[in-house]
Amino acid sequence: MTGRLIDLHCHLDLYPDFERLVGDCDRLGIYTLAVTTTPVAWPRNRDLAAGTKHVRAGLGLHPQLVGERWREVDIWERYLTEAKYVGEVGLDAGPRHYRSLERQKDVFGRILKGCASEGGKILSVHSVRAATQVLDMVEEHLPPGRGKVVLHWFTGSTAEAARAVKLGCYFSINAEMLKSERGMKTVMSLPGDRILTETDGPFTSVNGRPRRPSDVEDVVTAFAEAKRIVKKDFRDALFANLRNLASDARTVPSVERDGAGEPVLAHTRF
């Protein structure tokens, strides 16, 4: 691994060595968002991340679990004041989860309204086969200036991506997105100032094993090669994007460099 990295969507608590992996991310300087799939997992993720500089926990209620666990939105709401990051949340209209879509919309609506009321939240959002519906709900329930949305592993059309950009959304891209012609086309259409990186581990794999946050280097390399840009320049752009995403009115964000010349966030509450 070369240089500092960003993994803005990883399920750290689903690895058997969860606690060790949190420590590894912090030691290696990998800015990592540990998303959760249920608010029941929030306390442990919150507590482990609290002692680190580079790991943050996301308060989630995964749309694929809403059919069975929709009542946990009450728990989610109780924890919301503790969280800056929210995720994984959103909608999934794929065939396995379509039957719960209306329930998902109810839950996602409550999540968006809660975030809008609190203000200052950053959401990692799932939108499988539901990009337009997700964007409709974001536009209706999360007014500009009340929160920021990162569309994780976005599989919508280029037109939907363009609409998301107009709504102020960011996108976290992973290696799987760059393997298909359609995915590459969508990723290449995104403005450079809205792109971040992710692994979505352990749900993606490399060399027969689940990807870990350090494997996000593969995304940086593949994107830079596809875009024909210098990898260091892309890494710098990623840190500028994270700075802009994570900053708020109480901080003066900047990107500085460590002794090795690698970018680090300064004066930003990641």
Question: What key attributes describe this structure?
Answer:
12 strands; 270 residues; globular; single chain; 10 helices; alpha/beta
Radius of gyration: 17 Å
Helix content: 25-40%
Distance N to C terminus: 22 Å
Please give the count of helices.
10
Number of strands: 12
Q: Which outline best applies?
A: globular
Task: Itemize the secondary structure elements and their pairings.
Layout: E1 5-10, H1 18-28, E2 30-34, H2 42-50, E3 55-59, H3 66-69, H4 73-79, E4 85-92, H5 101-118, E5 121-128, H6 131-141, E6 147-152, H7 158-166, E7 170-173, H8 181-188, E8 195-197, E9 205-206, E10 209-210, H9 217-227, H10 231-246, E11 254-257, E12 263-266
Parallel strand pairs: 1-2, 2-3, 3-4, 4-5, 5-6, 6-7, 7-8
Antiparallel strand pairs: 9-10, 11-12
What's the gist of this structure?
The protein is of the alpha/beta class.
Structure, described:
The chain has 270 residues and is of the alpha/beta class. Helix content is 39%, strand content 21%. It contains 10 helices and 12 strands. It has helices at 18-28, 42-50, 66-69, 73-79, 101-118, 131-141, 158-166, 181-188, 217-227, 231-246; strands at residues 5-10, 30-34, 55-59, 85-92, 121-128, 147-152, 170-173, 195-197, 205-206, 209-210, 254-257, 263-266. The strands form 3 sheets. It has an 8-stranded parallel beta sheet with strand order 1-2-3-4-5-6-7-8. Strands 9-10 form a two-stranded antiparallel sheet. Strands 11-12 form a two-stranded antiparallel sheet. The two termini are 22 Å apart.
